[in-house]
Amino acid sequence: MTADLILVDGDITTSAGGPRVAALAVRAGRVLAAGSTDEIRRYAGSETRVVDLGGRCVIPGLVDNHIHFVRAGLTWNAELRWERCPSLAEGLRTIAEAAVSRPPGEWVLVIGGWHERQFPEGRGPGRAELDAVAPERPVFVQMMYDWAQVNTAGMRAAGLTPETAHAAGPHLFEWDDEGRPTGRVLGMEGCKWLYARLPKETLDDQIASTARLSRDLNRFAVTSLIDGGGVNTGPDVYQAVYEVDRRGELTVRTFLTVHASARGREAEEIAGYLRYGRPRHGSGTLRLLGFGEVVLYGLHDRVHTRVDVTDADRAELVRVFTDLAAGGWPVQMHAHRPEVIETVIAACEQVNARYPLAPLRWGIVHGEMIDAAQVGRVRALGLGVLTQSLLRFLGDQLAGAFGAERVRDAPPLRALLDAGVPVSAGTDAMRGASYDPFTSLHFYLTGRTIGGDRIVADENLLDRDEALRLYTRGSAWNCFAEREIGALDPGFRADLAVLSDDYFTVDVDTILTLESELTLLGGRPVHASGELAAILEEGR
Protein backbone atom coordinates (compact mmCIF):
# COMPACT_ATOMS: atom_id res chain seq x y z
CA MET A 1 0.00 0.00 0.00
CA THR A 2 1.49 3.34 -1.03
CA ALA A 3 1.25 6.60 0.89
CA ASP A 4 -0.05 9.94 -0.33
CA LEU A 5 2.48 11.79 1.84
CA ILE A 6 5.64 10.79 3.67
CA LEU A 7 7.46 12.86 6.27
CA VAL A 8 11.08 11.82 6.81
CA ASP A 9 14.07 12.79 8.98
CA GLY A 10 11.92 14.32 11.70
CA ASP A 11 11.69 14.02 15.46
CA ILE A 12 8.07 12.91 15.65
CA THR A 13 6.16 12.38 18.87
CA THR A 14 3.39 9.93 18.04
CA SER A 15 1.69 10.52 21.38
CA ALA A 16 2.68 12.29 24.59
CA GLY A 17 4.87 9.92 26.56
CA GLY A 18 4.87 7.49 23.64
CA PRO A 19 7.58 6.53 21.16
CA ARG A 20 9.32 9.13 19.02
CA VAL A 21 10.01 8.18 15.43
CA ALA A 22 11.79 9.70 12.45
CA ALA A 23 9.15 9.26 9.76
CA LEU A 24 5.43 9.04 9.12
CA ALA A 25 3.36 7.80 6.18
CA VAL A 26 -0.08 9.25 5.47
CA ARG A 27 -2.81 7.81 3.27
CA ALA A 28 -6.38 9.06 2.78
CA GLY A 29 -6.00 11.59 5.59
CA ARG A 30 -4.86 9.09 8.23
CA VAL A 31 -1.57 7.82 9.57
CA LEU A 32 -0.61 4.72 7.61
CA ALA A 33 2.62 3.89 9.45
CA ALA A 34 5.25 5.38 11.75
CA GLY A 35 8.86 4.32 12.10
CA SER A 36 12.37 4.95 10.85
CA THR A 37 13.02 6.87 7.66
CA ASP A 38 14.15 3.70 5.87
CA GLU A 39 11.05 1.81 7.01
CA ILE A 40 8.64 4.52 5.93
CA ARG A 41 10.27 5.22 2.55
CA ARG A 42 9.07 1.76 1.54
CA TYR A 43 5.54 3.21 1.37
CA ALA A 44 6.55 5.68 -1.36
CA GLY A 45 5.05 5.35 -4.80
CA SER A 46 5.34 7.36 -7.98
CA GLU A 47 2.72 9.87 -6.79
CA THR A 48 3.83 10.09 -3.15
CA ARG A 49 4.97 13.49 -1.90
CA VAL A 50 8.03 13.17 0.33
CA VAL A 51 8.88 16.00 2.75
CA ASP A 52 12.26 16.11 4.49
CA LEU A 53 11.75 17.67 7.92
CA GLY A 54 15.43 18.27 8.57
CA GLY A 55 15.22 17.00 12.15
CA ARG A 56 12.33 19.25 13.16
CA CYS A 57 10.10 18.49 16.15
CA VAL A 58 6.63 17.18 15.27
CA ILE A 59 3.73 16.84 17.68
CA PRO A 60 0.12 15.73 17.28
CA GLY A 61 -2.13 18.69 16.52
CA LEU A 62 -3.22 20.44 19.69
CA VAL A 63 -6.84 20.13 20.84
CA ASP A 64 -8.04 23.18 22.79
CA ASN A 65 -10.63 21.95 25.30
CA HIS A 66 -12.46 25.27 25.69
CA ILE A 67 -12.22 28.27 23.40
CA HIS A 68 -14.75 30.82 22.16
CA PHE A 69 -13.96 30.29 18.51
CA VAL A 70 -17.39 30.82 16.94
CA ARG A 71 -18.01 34.12 18.73
CA ALA A 72 -14.55 35.48 17.96
CA GLY A 73 -14.86 34.40 14.36
CA LEU A 74 -17.68 36.89 13.82
CA THR A 75 -15.30 39.87 14.21
CA TRP A 76 -11.78 38.44 13.80
CA ASN A 77 -10.80 40.41 10.69
CA ALA A 78 -11.76 43.66 12.41
CA GLU A 79 -9.59 42.95 15.47
CA LEU A 80 -5.99 43.59 16.46
CA ARG A 81 -4.46 40.95 18.70
CA TRP A 82 -2.01 41.83 21.46
CA GLU A 83 -1.16 38.30 22.68
CA ARG A 84 2.53 38.76 21.88
CA CYS A 85 2.61 42.55 21.99
CA PRO A 86 5.66 43.55 24.08
CA SER A 87 4.57 47.00 25.30
CA LEU A 88 1.75 49.50 25.45
CA ALA A 89 3.75 51.76 23.14
CA GLU A 90 3.81 48.99 20.52
CA GLY A 91 0.12 48.35 21.01
CA LEU A 92 -0.67 52.01 20.40
CA ARG A 93 1.50 51.88 17.28
CA THR A 94 -0.61 49.00 15.90
CA ILE A 95 -3.77 51.05 16.51
CA ALA A 96 -2.26 54.08 14.75
CA GLU A 97 -1.35 51.89 11.78
CA ALA A 98 -4.84 50.39 11.58
CA ALA A 99 -6.43 53.82 11.91
CA VAL A 100 -4.87 55.02 8.67
CA SER A 101 -5.18 51.78 6.68
CA ARG A 102 -8.80 50.81 7.25
CA PRO A 103 -11.90 52.09 5.46
CA PRO A 104 -13.42 55.30 6.84
CA GLY A 105 -15.70 54.83 9.84
CA GLU A 106 -14.61 51.27 10.60
CA TRP A 107 -13.88 50.54 14.24
CA VAL A 108 -10.47 49.39 15.44
CA LEU A 109 -11.05 46.59 17.96
CA VAL A 110 -8.72 44.99 20.51
CA ILE A 111 -11.13 42.63 22.24
CA GLY A 112 -9.21 40.80 24.95
CA GLY A 113 -6.56 38.10 24.92
CA TRP A 114 -3.93 40.31 26.58
CA HIS A 115 -3.19 41.71 30.05
CA GLU A 116 -1.77 45.02 31.20
CA ARG A 117 0.82 43.18 33.32
CA GLN A 118 2.50 41.91 30.14
CA PHE A 119 3.55 45.51 29.41
CA PRO A 120 6.51 47.23 31.07
CA GLU A 121 4.18 50.22 31.48
CA GLY A 122 1.97 48.02 33.69
CA ARG A 123 -1.29 49.42 32.35
CA GLY A 124 -3.59 49.66 29.37
CA PRO A 125 -4.35 52.75 27.29
CA GLY A 126 -6.42 55.72 28.38
CA ARG A 127 -8.74 57.77 26.23
CA ALA A 128 -6.21 60.53 25.60
CA GLU A 129 -3.67 58.05 24.28
CA LEU A 130 -6.23 56.47 21.98
CA ASP A 131 -7.31 59.91 20.78
CA ALA A 132 -3.69 60.76 19.98
CA VAL A 133 -3.18 57.77 17.69
CA ALA A 134 -6.72 57.62 16.23
CA PRO A 135 -8.37 61.06 16.57
CA GLU A 136 -11.10 60.46 13.98
CA ARG A 137 -11.68 56.73 14.13
CA PRO A 138 -13.62 54.84 16.84
CA VAL A 139 -11.38 52.54 18.89
CA PHE A 140 -12.38 49.85 21.42
CA VAL A 141 -9.77 48.21 23.67
CA GLN A 142 -10.86 45.53 26.15
CA MET A 143 -8.76 43.91 28.89
CA MET A 144 -10.34 40.57 29.77
CA TYR A 145 -13.74 41.36 31.30
CA ASP A 146 -12.26 43.83 33.78
CA TRP A 147 -12.74 46.92 31.65
CA ALA A 148 -12.91 48.30 28.14
CA GLN A 149 -11.81 51.72 26.91
CA VAL A 150 -13.08 53.68 23.94
CA ASN A 151 -11.68 56.90 22.55
CA THR A 152 -13.67 60.09 21.99
CA ALA A 153 -14.71 59.02 18.49
CA GLY A 154 -15.80 55.71 19.98
CA MET A 155 -17.88 57.48 22.62
CA ARG A 156 -19.66 59.40 19.88
CA ALA A 157 -20.21 56.28 17.77
CA ALA A 158 -21.52 54.29 20.75
CA GLY A 159 -23.72 57.13 22.00
CA LEU A 160 -21.93 57.20 25.36
CA THR A 161 -23.08 60.34 27.17
CA PRO A 162 -23.83 61.16 30.81
CA GLU A 163 -27.50 60.54 30.08
CA THR A 164 -27.08 57.13 28.43
CA ALA A 165 -24.59 56.05 31.09
CA HIS A 166 -26.92 56.95 33.93
CA ALA A 167 -29.79 55.20 32.19
CA ALA A 168 -27.77 52.00 31.79
CA GLY A 169 -26.44 52.10 35.36
CA PRO A 170 -23.73 54.45 36.66
CA HIS A 171 -21.77 51.55 38.18
CA LEU A 172 -20.97 50.26 34.69
CA PHE A 173 -18.90 53.33 33.86
CA GLU A 174 -15.86 55.24 35.07
CA TRP A 175 -16.53 58.94 35.72
CA ASP A 176 -14.20 61.94 35.80
CA ASP A 177 -14.15 64.62 38.50
CA GLU A 178 -16.71 66.68 36.59
CA GLY A 179 -19.26 63.87 36.43
CA ARG A 180 -18.66 62.85 32.83
CA PRO A 181 -17.94 59.34 31.50
CA THR A 182 -14.27 58.80 30.73
CA GLY A 183 -14.97 56.26 28.00
CA ARG A 184 -14.06 53.32 30.22
CA VAL A 185 -16.70 50.70 31.02
CA LEU A 186 -16.35 48.28 33.92
CA GLY A 187 -16.86 44.54 34.25
CA MET A 188 -18.62 42.09 32.00
CA GLU A 189 -21.89 44.02 32.03
CA GLY A 190 -20.13 47.21 30.99
CA CYS A 191 -18.39 45.37 28.16
CA LYS A 192 -21.72 43.91 27.07
CA TRP A 193 -23.20 47.43 26.97
CA LEU A 194 -20.51 48.42 24.49
CA TYR A 195 -20.78 45.20 22.46
CA ALA A 196 -24.43 45.98 21.79
CA ARG A 197 -23.39 49.28 20.21
CA LEU A 198 -20.72 47.97 17.89
CA PRO A 199 -21.74 47.61 14.24
CA LYS A 200 -22.61 44.04 13.32
CA GLU A 201 -20.45 42.43 10.66
CA THR A 202 -22.16 41.26 7.49
CA LEU A 203 -22.54 37.52 7.00
CA ASP A 204 -19.86 37.61 4.29
CA ASP A 205 -17.49 39.34 6.71
CA GLN A 206 -18.28 36.80 9.42
CA ILE A 207 -17.55 33.94 7.03
CA ALA A 208 -14.22 35.43 5.95
CA SER A 209 -13.27 36.18 9.56
CA THR A 210 -14.10 32.68 10.78
CA ALA A 211 -12.06 31.08 8.00
CA ARG A 212 -9.08 33.30 8.80
CA LEU A 213 -9.33 32.59 12.52
CA SER A 214 -9.18 28.85 11.86
CA ARG A 215 -5.97 29.40 9.85
CA ASP A 216 -4.52 31.59 12.60
CA LEU A 217 -5.09 28.76 15.08
CA ASN A 218 -3.26 26.42 12.71
CA ARG A 219 -0.25 28.75 12.97
CA PHE A 220 -0.16 27.90 16.67
CA ALA A 221 -0.41 24.12 16.06
CA VAL A 222 -4.13 23.88 16.92
CA THR A 223 -6.04 21.42 14.74
CA SER A 224 -9.12 20.72 16.89
CA LEU A 225 -11.12 22.58 19.51
CA ILE A 226 -14.21 22.54 21.66
CA ASP A 227 -16.19 25.74 21.24
CA GLY A 228 -17.64 26.87 24.56
CA GLY A 229 -20.38 29.16 23.25
CA GLY A 230 -20.15 31.97 25.79
CA VAL A 231 -22.07 34.96 27.07
CA ASN A 232 -24.06 36.69 24.31
CA THR A 233 -24.15 33.63 22.07
CA GLY A 234 -27.19 31.58 21.26
CA PRO A 235 -28.82 29.71 18.40
CA ASP A 236 -28.35 32.59 15.93
CA VAL A 237 -24.52 32.80 15.89
CA TYR A 238 -23.64 29.60 14.05
CA GLN A 239 -24.52 30.46 10.46
CA ALA A 240 -21.02 31.63 9.56
CA VAL A 241 -19.13 28.62 10.91
CA TYR A 242 -21.51 26.19 9.18
CA GLU A 243 -21.03 28.04 5.89
CA VAL A 244 -17.24 27.99 6.27
CA ASP A 245 -17.44 24.24 6.82
CA ARG A 246 -19.75 23.80 3.82
CA ARG A 247 -17.19 25.60 1.66
CA GLY A 248 -14.38 23.35 2.87
CA GLU A 249 -12.53 26.26 4.49
CA LEU A 250 -12.75 25.23 8.13
CA THR A 251 -9.21 24.15 9.03
CA VAL A 252 -9.78 23.19 12.68
CA ARG A 253 -12.02 20.33 13.75
CA THR A 254 -14.71 22.15 15.71
CA PHE A 255 -16.85 20.49 18.37
CA LEU A 256 -19.72 22.75 19.40
CA THR A 257 -21.30 23.10 22.81
CA VAL A 258 -24.47 25.18 22.74
CA HIS A 259 -26.61 26.95 25.32
CA ALA A 260 -29.31 29.55 25.86
CA SER A 261 -28.64 33.09 24.67
CA ALA A 262 -29.72 35.03 27.78
CA ARG A 263 -30.96 34.75 31.33
CA GLY A 264 -34.66 33.97 31.41
CA ARG A 265 -34.53 32.18 28.06
CA GLU A 266 -32.95 28.97 29.32
CA ALA A 267 -36.12 26.85 29.51
CA GLU A 268 -37.39 27.81 26.04
CA GLU A 269 -34.07 27.49 24.22
CA ILE A 270 -32.93 24.33 26.02
CA ALA A 271 -36.24 22.73 25.04
CA GLY A 272 -35.55 23.68 21.43
CA TYR A 273 -32.08 22.13 21.48
CA LEU A 274 -33.45 18.95 23.06
CA ARG A 275 -36.17 18.75 20.44
CA TYR A 276 -34.05 19.37 17.33
CA GLY A 277 -30.38 18.87 18.25
CA ARG A 278 -28.42 15.69 17.61
CA PRO A 279 -25.39 15.65 19.91
CA ARG A 280 -22.19 14.06 18.60
CA HIS A 281 -23.32 14.39 15.00
CA GLY A 282 -21.87 16.43 12.15
CA SER A 283 -19.10 16.46 9.58
CA GLY A 284 -15.45 15.54 10.00
CA THR A 285 -14.65 19.17 10.77
CA LEU A 286 -17.82 20.50 12.44
CA ARG A 287 -19.85 18.56 14.95
CA LEU A 288 -22.46 19.33 17.60
CA LEU A 289 -20.88 17.86 20.71
CA GLY A 290 -23.29 18.76 23.51
CA PHE A 291 -24.48 21.42 25.92
CA GLY A 292 -22.43 24.15 27.64
CA GLU A 293 -20.71 26.15 28.90
CA VAL A 294 -23.61 28.18 30.33
CA VAL A 295 -26.33 25.98 31.76
CA LEU A 296 -28.10 28.53 33.98
CA TYR A 297 -27.04 32.16 33.76
CA GLY A 298 -27.64 32.64 37.48
CA LEU A 299 -24.87 30.13 38.18
CA HIS A 300 -22.43 31.47 35.57
CA ASP A 301 -19.79 32.63 38.05
CA ARG A 302 -16.65 34.78 37.98
CA VAL A 303 -13.65 33.87 40.10
CA HIS A 304 -13.75 36.89 42.40
CA THR A 305 -17.51 37.33 42.93
CA ARG A 306 -19.43 35.12 45.32
CA VAL A 307 -22.63 33.53 44.02
CA ASP A 308 -25.53 33.25 46.45
CA VAL A 309 -26.85 29.87 45.32
CA THR A 310 -30.49 29.43 46.29
CA ASP A 311 -32.58 26.31 46.75
CA ALA A 312 -34.45 27.35 43.62
CA ASP A 313 -31.16 27.45 41.67
CA ARG A 314 -30.28 23.95 42.89
CA ALA A 315 -33.68 22.57 41.97
CA GLU A 316 -33.62 24.19 38.53
CA LEU A 317 -30.13 22.84 37.81
CA VAL A 318 -31.25 19.31 38.73
CA ARG A 319 -34.28 19.70 36.45
CA VAL A 320 -32.20 20.91 33.49
CA PHE A 321 -29.49 18.29 34.08
CA THR A 322 -32.16 15.58 34.23
CA ASP A 323 -33.62 16.66 30.88
CA LEU A 324 -30.17 16.75 29.26
CA ALA A 325 -29.12 13.38 30.67
CA ALA A 326 -32.41 11.79 29.63
CA GLY A 327 -31.80 13.10 26.11
CA GLY A 328 -28.30 11.63 25.99
CA TRP A 329 -26.56 15.02 25.87
CA PRO A 330 -22.96 15.49 26.95
CA VAL A 331 -22.68 18.57 29.22
CA GLN A 332 -19.67 20.77 29.97
CA MET A 333 -20.56 23.37 32.63
CA HIS A 334 -18.56 26.44 33.58
CA ALA A 335 -17.73 26.59 37.31
CA HIS A 336 -14.89 28.46 39.02
CA ARG A 337 -15.94 28.99 42.62
CA PRO A 338 -16.44 26.52 45.50
CA GLU A 339 -20.15 27.21 45.94
CA VAL A 340 -20.90 26.67 42.26
CA ILE A 341 -18.65 23.62 41.93
CA GLU A 342 -20.39 22.00 44.92
CA THR A 343 -23.79 22.81 43.40
CA VAL A 344 -22.77 21.18 40.11
CA ILE A 345 -21.35 18.04 41.75
CA ALA A 346 -24.38 17.63 44.04
CA ALA A 347 -26.79 18.03 41.09
CA CYS A 348 -24.81 15.48 39.09
CA GLU A 349 -25.04 13.03 41.97
CA GLN A 350 -28.82 13.35 42.04
CA VAL A 351 -29.15 12.90 38.29
CA ASN A 352 -26.62 10.06 38.15
CA ALA A 353 -28.84 7.95 40.40
CA ARG A 354 -31.34 7.82 37.55
CA TYR A 355 -29.26 8.42 34.41
CA PRO A 356 -25.62 7.27 34.60
CA LEU A 357 -23.41 10.17 33.54
CA ALA A 358 -20.13 8.37 32.89
CA PRO A 359 -21.12 7.26 29.35
CA LEU A 360 -22.04 10.88 28.54
CA ARG A 361 -18.63 12.22 29.66
CA TRP A 362 -19.97 15.28 31.45
CA GLY A 363 -17.37 17.76 32.59
CA ILE A 364 -16.63 20.72 34.83
CA VAL A 365 -15.10 23.56 32.81
CA HIS A 366 -12.37 25.53 34.68
CA GLY A 367 -12.81 23.92 38.11
CA GLU A 368 -10.04 25.90 39.79
CA MET A 369 -11.57 25.63 43.26
CA ILE A 370 -12.29 21.91 43.31
CA ASP A 371 -11.05 20.75 46.70
CA ALA A 372 -9.44 17.49 47.78
CA ALA A 373 -12.67 16.17 49.28
CA GLN A 374 -14.49 16.56 45.98
CA VAL A 375 -11.94 14.73 43.83
CA GLY A 376 -13.28 11.28 44.75
CA ARG A 377 -16.84 12.35 44.07
CA VAL A 378 -15.86 13.70 40.64
CA ARG A 379 -14.11 10.41 39.85
CA ALA A 380 -17.08 8.32 41.04
CA LEU A 381 -19.40 10.20 38.69
CA GLY A 382 -17.08 9.75 35.71
CA LEU A 383 -16.83 13.52 35.22
CA GLY A 384 -13.95 15.12 33.40
CA VAL A 385 -12.28 18.38 34.42
CA LEU A 386 -11.52 20.76 31.56
CA THR A 387 -8.78 23.03 32.89
CA GLN A 388 -7.34 26.17 31.32
CA SER A 389 -4.49 28.52 32.17
CA LEU A 390 -6.80 31.30 33.38
CA LEU A 391 -4.66 31.86 36.46
CA ARG A 392 -1.92 33.11 34.17
CA PHE A 393 -4.04 36.28 33.97
CA LEU A 394 -6.28 35.84 37.03
CA GLY A 395 -3.91 34.48 39.65
CA ASP A 396 -3.72 37.74 41.57
CA GLN A 397 -7.51 38.10 41.67
CA LEU A 398 -7.98 34.53 42.85
CA ALA A 399 -5.29 34.93 45.51
CA GLY A 400 -7.02 38.08 46.69
CA ALA A 401 -10.32 36.24 47.00
CA PHE A 402 -9.13 32.96 48.55
CA GLY A 403 -5.55 33.47 49.74
CA ALA A 404 -2.25 32.51 48.13
CA GLU A 405 -2.10 29.14 49.89
CA ARG A 406 -5.46 28.01 48.47
CA VAL A 407 -4.47 29.11 44.97
CA ARG A 408 -1.46 26.78 45.04
CA ASP A 409 -3.94 23.96 44.46
CA ALA A 410 -6.21 25.70 41.98
CA PRO A 411 -7.04 23.25 40.59
CA PRO A 412 -5.49 20.23 42.37
CA LEU A 413 -4.09 18.79 39.13
CA ARG A 414 -1.93 16.12 40.72
CA ALA A 415 -4.75 14.82 42.93
CA LEU A 416 -7.12 14.72 39.96
CA LEU A 417 -4.63 12.88 37.75
CA ASP A 418 -3.64 10.44 40.50
CA ALA A 419 -7.33 9.65 41.10
CA GLY A 420 -7.83 8.81 37.43
CA VAL A 421 -10.07 11.79 36.65
CA PRO A 422 -9.96 12.64 32.92
CA VAL A 423 -8.21 16.03 32.79
CA SER A 424 -7.65 18.13 29.69
CA ALA A 425 -6.13 21.49 28.76
CA GLY A 426 -7.02 24.62 26.83
CA THR A 427 -7.05 28.40 26.82
CA ASP A 428 -10.56 29.86 27.32
CA ALA A 429 -9.67 32.45 24.67
CA MET A 430 -10.54 34.87 23.08
CA ARG A 431 -11.62 37.57 25.54
CA GLY A 432 -10.41 36.36 28.92
CA ALA A 433 -7.23 34.65 27.74
CA SER A 434 -4.79 34.36 24.88
CA TYR A 435 -5.58 31.93 22.07
CA ASP A 436 -1.87 31.04 21.85
CA PRO A 437 -1.68 27.50 23.31
CA PHE A 438 2.01 27.84 24.10
CA THR A 439 1.16 30.40 26.79
CA SER A 440 -1.06 27.74 28.39
CA LEU A 441 1.56 25.01 28.09
CA HIS A 442 4.11 27.38 29.66
CA PHE A 443 1.77 28.00 32.60
CA TYR A 444 1.20 24.27 33.20
CA LEU A 445 4.98 23.81 33.29
CA THR A 446 5.94 26.85 35.39
CA GLY A 447 2.89 27.99 37.37
CA ARG A 448 3.85 31.60 36.60
CA THR A 449 1.43 34.45 35.94
CA ILE A 450 1.79 36.96 33.13
CA GLY A 451 3.64 39.17 35.60
CA GLY A 452 6.14 36.41 36.45
CA ASP A 453 4.81 35.48 39.90
CA ARG A 454 4.96 31.77 40.79
CA ILE A 455 1.58 30.80 42.26
CA VAL A 456 1.24 27.02 41.75
CA ALA A 457 2.51 24.33 44.14
CA ASP A 458 5.32 22.05 42.93
CA GLU A 459 3.08 18.99 42.95
CA ASN A 460 0.61 20.65 40.58
CA LEU A 461 3.21 21.49 37.95
CA LEU A 462 3.28 19.17 34.95
CA ASP A 463 6.22 17.89 32.96
CA ARG A 464 6.28 18.45 29.21
CA ASP A 465 4.86 15.06 28.31
CA GLU A 466 2.03 15.45 30.82
CA ALA A 467 1.11 18.93 29.60
CA LEU A 468 1.12 17.80 25.98
CA ARG A 469 -0.99 14.75 26.86
CA LEU A 470 -3.65 16.97 28.46
CA TYR A 471 -3.60 19.17 25.34
CA THR A 472 -4.00 16.24 22.93
CA ARG A 473 -5.39 12.91 24.15
CA GLY A 474 -6.93 14.56 27.21
CA SER A 475 -9.01 17.01 25.20
CA ALA A 476 -9.81 14.38 22.57
CA TRP A 477 -11.53 12.36 25.32
CA ASN A 478 -13.90 15.26 25.97
CA CYS A 479 -14.85 15.11 22.26
CA PHE A 480 -15.40 11.32 22.22
CA ALA A 481 -12.56 11.36 19.67
CA GLU A 482 -9.62 9.85 21.55
CA ARG A 483 -9.32 7.11 18.88
CA GLU A 484 -9.32 9.67 16.08
CA ILE A 485 -7.26 12.68 17.13
CA GLY A 486 -4.61 13.61 19.68
CA ALA A 487 -2.03 11.01 18.57
CA LEU A 488 -0.18 9.95 15.42
CA ASP A 489 -0.57 6.21 15.72
CA PRO A 490 -1.63 4.17 12.65
CA GLY A 491 -5.30 4.74 11.90
CA PHE A 492 -5.47 8.17 13.57
CA ARG A 493 -6.23 11.27 11.56
CA ALA A 494 -3.03 12.86 10.30
CA ASP A 495 -3.43 16.11 12.26
CA LEU A 496 0.03 17.36 13.23
CA ALA A 497 2.30 20.36 13.66
CA VAL A 498 5.96 20.75 12.72
CA LEU A 499 7.25 23.20 15.33
CA SER A 500 9.69 26.08 14.99
CA ASP A 501 11.84 24.57 17.77
CA ASP A 502 11.88 21.47 19.96
CA TYR A 503 9.14 21.73 22.57
CA PHE A 504 10.80 19.01 24.67
CA THR A 505 14.30 20.47 24.91
CA VAL A 506 14.20 24.26 24.58
CA ASP A 507 14.46 26.51 27.61
CA VAL A 508 11.03 26.66 29.20
CA ASP A 509 10.56 30.37 28.44
CA THR A 510 11.34 29.76 24.76
CA ILE A 511 8.12 27.74 24.63
CA LEU A 512 6.33 31.12 24.67
CA THR A 513 7.81 31.84 21.21
CA LEU A 514 6.94 28.54 19.51
CA GLU A 515 4.81 28.38 16.38
CA SER A 516 4.05 25.78 13.77
CA GLU A 517 6.04 25.84 10.54
CA LEU A 518 3.77 23.23 8.95
CA THR A 519 0.32 22.15 10.12
CA LEU A 520 -1.55 19.25 8.56
CA LEU A 521 -5.25 18.53 8.99
CA GLY A 522 -6.08 15.05 7.79
CA GLY A 523 -2.78 15.04 5.92
CA ARG A 524 -3.63 18.26 4.10
CA PRO A 525 -1.38 21.31 4.57
CA VAL A 526 -3.42 24.10 6.16
CA HIS A 527 -0.52 26.27 7.34
CA ALA A 528 3.13 26.52 6.30
CA SER A 529 5.85 29.12 6.75
CA GLY A 530 9.57 29.63 6.27
CA GLU A 531 11.40 26.87 4.42
CA LEU A 532 8.24 24.75 4.43
CA ALA A 533 5.97 27.42 2.91
CA ALA A 534 6.14 25.88 -0.56
CA ILE A 535 4.35 22.79 0.73
CA LEU A 536 1.19 24.80 1.27
CA GLU A 537 1.18 25.99 -2.34
CA GLU A 538 1.82 22.48 -3.62
CA GLY A 539 -1.13 21.22 -1.56
CA ARG A 540 -3.63 23.63 -3.09
From TrEMBL:
The record's section on SUPFAM superfamilies has: Composite domain of metallo-dependent hydrolases (SSF51338), Metallo-dependent hydrolases (SSF51556)
Matching Pfam families: Amidohydro_3 (PF07969)
Report domain Amidohydrolase positions: 49-527
Output one GO MF annotation.
Answer: hydrolase activity, acting on carbon-nitrogen (but not peptide) bonds
Top-rank lineage group of the source organism: Bacteria
Q: What is this protein called?
A: Amidohydrolase 3 domain-containing protein
